[in-house]
Amino acid sequence: MSAPALAAHRTAYLDSAPLKPGDRVRVVSPSGPGNVESLERAVGYYRDWGVEVVVGDHVLDPHPRATYLAGADDVRRADLVDAWCDPDADAIVCLRGGYGAMRLLDGIDWPRLREASLRRDGRPKLLTGSSDATALHEAFRVHLDVPTLFCPMPGNDVFRDAEGIRDDVHRWLFEPWRGRSIVGPRTEVLVPGRAGGRFTGGNLSLLAMGLGSPEAAVVPGGILFLEDVNEDAYRLDSFLLQLRRAGRLTAAAGIVLGSWHNCAEPDAVRALMADELGDLGVPVLWEQGFGHAPDALSIPLNVDGVLEADAGGSADAGVRLVVGEPA
């Protein structure tokens, strides 16, 4: 399947739900290690939702040296590739984040994955995951041009602890996306304005880490989503500087800031974002809610949408962030 042909499938989930009972979900662990308990819990959630679950062969394999990786690169890569190329697979679910997904990208046969991108019903398969999976979202956007879902992962404690997160992920998987509002309860307008275009982005540090890679060779426009976790203010500053110098910030038509869980003090992060993004001339939302927060929202990527932010607007009024509307 050629890239132009796949481009027509970016809208595949706007009017029809990604999954239905009986579909097949493949669970992989491209980053950090899980354990038997978290894997069984994750599988249980999806089976309770009525789908068939197939677990990657090496999900619980230990790495011979690096305890922060869920097995060696070649076996994590093999699980990911096998899952995507399974002709009966409908979605690929990352079990958890951590670190390691970017290590897999250079060894992937992207033409092979592109040929295997469509499921039995002719729509593209769906990759789901967040945090370190940002590297995969970026690569799947560039090499496969398919929609993906940046969402909390079922092997993480937050998925276990927050029924609201599970309900939100379930809705994104089992309901159509068009017209869905993704304004969080604490959203505020940092810079007013209106914008439209493709949703891209994810974890700020992962986006900065990917600069200079093949995936970063062409800078996307549209609406850029950014979030992070466990980073000091100077580190966030440096990541933003990297994105600015690479043209990623200046190419954006609008910017949506998610959660900054366990980063610097919220007021300090807000002030940093205002300083670094306020001169771009594009609308900026503060604390939209996706990311690592205990009540994190899911967001679709590589789909179009609109951002409307009135001066002084908040979650209650004056903010629209809607999936599937034209720019």
TrEMBL record:
Coiled coil (residue ranges): none
One Pfam family, short name: Peptidase_S66C
UniProt keyword annotation of Transcription regulation present: no
Domain LD-carboxypeptidase N-terminal: 25-149
Domain LD-carboxypeptidase C-terminal: residue ranges: 197-303
Annotated keywords: Carboxypeptidase, Hydrolase, Protease, Serine protease
Domain of life: Bacteria
InterPro entries in the cross-refs: Carboxypeptidase_A_C_sf, Class_I_gatase-like, LdcA_N, Peptidase_S66_N, Peptidase_S66C, S66_fam
Cytoplasm found in the keyword field: no
Family: Belongs to the peptidase S66 family.
Protein name as catalogued: LD-carboxypeptidase
